[in-house]
Amino acid sequence: MRPAKVDPVKLVSSVISGDPALMEVALGKLESSFGRLDYLSPILPFDRTGYYEAEMGRDLLRRIVSFEELIEPGELAEIKLRTNSVEDDFLSQGGKRRVNVDPGYLTLHNLVLASCKNFAHRVYIGRGVYAEVTLLYRKDCYRPLEWTYPDYRDGTMRGIFKEIRALYARRLGRGGKGVQ
Predict the structure, then answer these.
(1) CB burial class (10 A; 0-12, 13-18, 19+) of residue 173?
(2) pLDDT at 178 over 50
(3) In degrees, to the nearest 5, what angle opens at C-alpha 114 toward C-alphas 59 and 83?
(4) Is the pLDDT of residue 133 over 90?
(5) Do residues 33 and 84 touch, judged by C-beta distance below 8 A?
(6) Quick one: average pLDDT of 16-36?
(7) What does the mean pLDDT of the chain come to?
(8) Which of 11, 69, 104, 133 has its CA 20 to 30 Å from the CA of residue 31?
(9) What 8-state DSSP symbol labels residue 18?
(10) Radius of gyration of the chain (CA)
(11) 83-111: per-residue pLDDT in tens?
(12) 99 burial class (0-12, 13-18, 19+ CB within 10 angstroms)?
């Protein structure tokens, strides 16, 4: 069997900050890099984990976005490095992040996130970047996996990705029919 042509995928990103105004500036930089947004979630509390608290403080907020332009899945490592550069634009005087940008992509079957941290369930994709399948789409909804972050397990987040999936399916001309 020979490799088949791969469908383009839907670029998504999480943007986390304690400062809503700073988050908006970061979103503008992401649009400059990756094109127009076609989905912007409401501002959500980032309260399922204290992972970023030491670096970024308390009372963090998050927005999920997706971009109109579809990408090739093989671009994810480069995109992660570009989003790291956006984070670096907002470092504090002490070199701590004030904005966290976590890109990934969505297909009709799953949500894949990029990370610079290795772990048993992550696959190296080049340039110091790893990818993980975070959610699977089965029986009309996204389902978490053993390693899915607590916030991505949440029904609100899974609903957001289902909305983005519908945009993606329409863009592919499939409407999501027959894809479980």
Answers:
(1) exposed
(2) no
(3) 65
(4) yes
(5) no
(6) 98
(7) 95
(8) 133
(9) S
(10) 16
(11) 999 999 999 999 999 999 999 999 999 99
(12) buried
- Residue 175 in this model has a pLDDT that exceeds 90: no
pLDDT at 174: 78
The C-alpha angle with vertex 49 and arms to 12 and 29, in degrees rounded to 5, equals: 35
> Which CATH number is associated with domain 9-172?
3.30.70
Place of tokens 């409401």: 42
Q: Please, how many CA atoms are within 13 Å of residue 41, restricted to the half-sphere of its CB?
A: 24
8 A C-beta contact, residue 137 and residue 180: yes
The amino acid sitting at 89 is D
User: Could you tell me how many residues make up the chain?
Assistant: 180
| Phi, psi of 113, deg, nearest 5 | -115, 150
CA pair distance 115, 45, nearest whole angstrom: 21
Using left for φ > 0, alpha for ψ between -120 and 50, and beta otherwise, residue 168 falls in: alpha
